[in-house]
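[User] Could I get a sequence and structure tokens?

[Assistant]
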Amino acid sequence: MALEIRTVRPEEMQDFRHHLSIVFVTKETPSNGVLRPEWTLCGFEDGVLATTFGAYQLTMRFNGAAVPVSAITAVATLPIYRRKGHLRSIMTKHFQNLHEIGERPIAILLASMAAIYQRYGYAIVCNSMQYNIDPRQIRFAFPKKTTGTLLHLSNSDADFNVMAELYRKFSDDKTGYLERVKAEWDFVIMANVPVGGQLIKAVYEENGEPLGYVIYVTHPQKGTPFATVHQLIIRDLVWLNIDAYRAIWEHFSCFDLFATISWGRVPTDDPLQHLLVEPRLLQATMKDCLLGRIVDVDKALTKRSYQEKGELTFEVEDEICTWNQGCWKLEASPDGSHIARTREKPQLVMPVSTLAKLVFGQISATEAARMGRLEVNEASALSVWDKVMKTLYAPACADSF
């Protein structure tokens, strides 16, 4: 068995897509048509495509800062080629390439199985919730009159620009949100409308100023006469103030002929569960969302922003990206940060996956210590770590890639 790791050639992209359809049991579609051959890194066993792998070059918001990331996608190994270490070899090569170029210190992905990627130093860096609620149960715990208006949007470029600008403002100070490229809007958010359904876009305005929008699809279902069996699925929801958020949900409470309103990829700090008179009727469930991998410790930690000042010393364990191993000292402040190797005794010792959870704000250092995800040499440092690493919002990612 000889494994060759290389990009696919343009004429091999059809085989690439067919490979994905076999592994993920889906129709063979050009859903990865925006993935260029040069963005792939695949494994060929004795000349036959065995493992597919791709990476988009995207930009992620990192506690308000813009950070270039490698967004991993289309990872699939045919069952007859599994358990041979192909993916580990490809992942290691990809990390090495990123390190040598030095432009993208973080890799991210959305996993079909988180267990696959935690073996390579990835960590679950944000969770998301799923809501499923009967529109008749959308009742707020306290009255608050909104002064704005909800209006339908068209397919015009001007209306698209309104949504794009609102999303930019909404995601600007977040962690985990992606700076959207046009392909995300075209091929994910506003594509694949169910047969007989509708894609609807609405914007909330106050005195002519757009302050939020929602994109959703209706999913018609057959049922008995007068039965409320239709479904509404929220594709994207953005708000710049709480009035916009409430107005959108008040709008949904009027969908009398629908049985369910569903919203996936809900941020864990979403306000709705604190506003409804009976929040359990949201039937909220939680699952892992974004996985993150720190490829270069020094570049990753200095590219995010910090709201508090502090000096943090730590030791990183990383068997794949060995250049990360060792002791580091981070000097962080709202004005900027600096990191360097140090001979000081580390306050904390942790695997690179735990460090990812801390810098994304998924958990605090104190929580990580209680979970046994790090070793503590200086207990008094935990409160400093908690303060410095705290993010403005819970990490979240609304997009697929």
Notes: The longest strand covers residues 48-62. The chain has three domains: 3-104, 129-286, 297-389. Residues 86-101 form the longest helix (16 residues).
